[in-house]
Design brief:
single chain, 55% helix, elongated, transport, transmembrane helix
Length: 275
């Protein structure tokens, strides 16, 4: 049983599905040919897109009188509306016209007048699509400009069924969004330097004695915190050398900072002077 009623959301979703199906097909084609020598097929990109779009159009509109997106939502065109002349016009407006535009932009870049003409036509089509969208919202018929020009109406195959909506996915998204907001609020106020130090002290099996050691500074001396060549060497009272920014940053973040090698703890912050 066929009916004239098709929900607006189904008609809009079918257009989005058609766009996604086309992008997926082209992506698969590019994944296949990307292993070929570079530049071998790049000059034929408009023709490759034309073949992909033509294949989709042939197996959907020409054979089933409905795009793949429409078929997924149980929508179709009436066969008596898609006459042979309208089929040719539909192919030209949806496939051939896009190929001609891509061909001009890909191979005729030197013709500035042609490029300006294409830009002007694109702007006009954008305005017409904008106006047609508001007309569609008011009438609920002919969601695309091509459908309006060719006078094609959508038909529902399985009747005017109410679209069912599941809220389980929405609930999961709301819970996850709330959890992310909680993390975004709590993470900045947690002192991870102090937390890491306390966990390290808690899990340590034995306590190392805190002894003041002799500081040795050489040409190849490295910071014990970042393990890079030391910059502006400083120490905290033990025999290990830190970069100025490594030691200063840790002391500012955690007043109880301990040497990450010997666990020495003191309030000393002095520059190392080579002896």
């Amino acid at each position: 049983m066929k009916t004239n009623f098709v929900p607006r959301v189904n008609q809009l979703d079918s257009i989005q599905l058609d766009n996604e199906i086309g992008n997926i097909l082209k992506e698969q084609i590019y994944n296949v040919i990307r292993n070929l020598p570079p530049g071998l097929l790049s000059r034929f990109q408009p023709e490759i897109n034309l073949l992909a779009s033509s294949a989709l159009w042939n197996f959907s509109i020409r054979q089933s009188f409905a795009t793949f997106g429409q078929q997924m939502l149980s929508i179709t065109y009436e066969k008596d509306q898609l006459t042979p002349e309208k089929l040719k016009a539909h192919y030209f407006l949806t496939v051939a016209l896009a190929y001609l535009k891509e061909l001009a932009q890909f191979r005729l870049t030197g013709y500035m007048a042609l490029q300006r003409t294409i830009t002007t036509l694109e702007n006009c089509l954008t305005c017409l699509n904008f106006l047609n969208f508001f007309r569609f919202l008011r009438t609920g018929r002919k969601p695309s400009l091509v459908d309006y020009v060719l006078r094609l109406d959508h038909r529902s195959i399985d009747g005017a069924k109410r679209r069912t909506i599941g809220y389980s996915y929405m609930t999961r998204e709301l819970i996850w969004a709330g959890f992310m907001e909680l993390l975004g609020f709590t993470i900045p106020i947690v002192n991870y330097h102090a937390l890491k130090r306390r966990l390290r002290n808690l899990l340590r099996l034995e306590v190392r004695p805190q002894e003041v050691q002799r500081i040795v500074l050489g040409v190849e001396s490295k910071c014990v915190y970042c393990n890079e060549r030391v910059t502006l060497p400083h120490h905290m009272g033990c025999g290990h050398v830190f970069c100025y920014y490594c030691l200063k940053g840790n002391l500012l973040a955690d007043s109880g900072f301990q040497c990450n090698v010997c666990d020495f703890k003191s309030g000393v912050f002095e520059r190392v002077v080579a002896g």
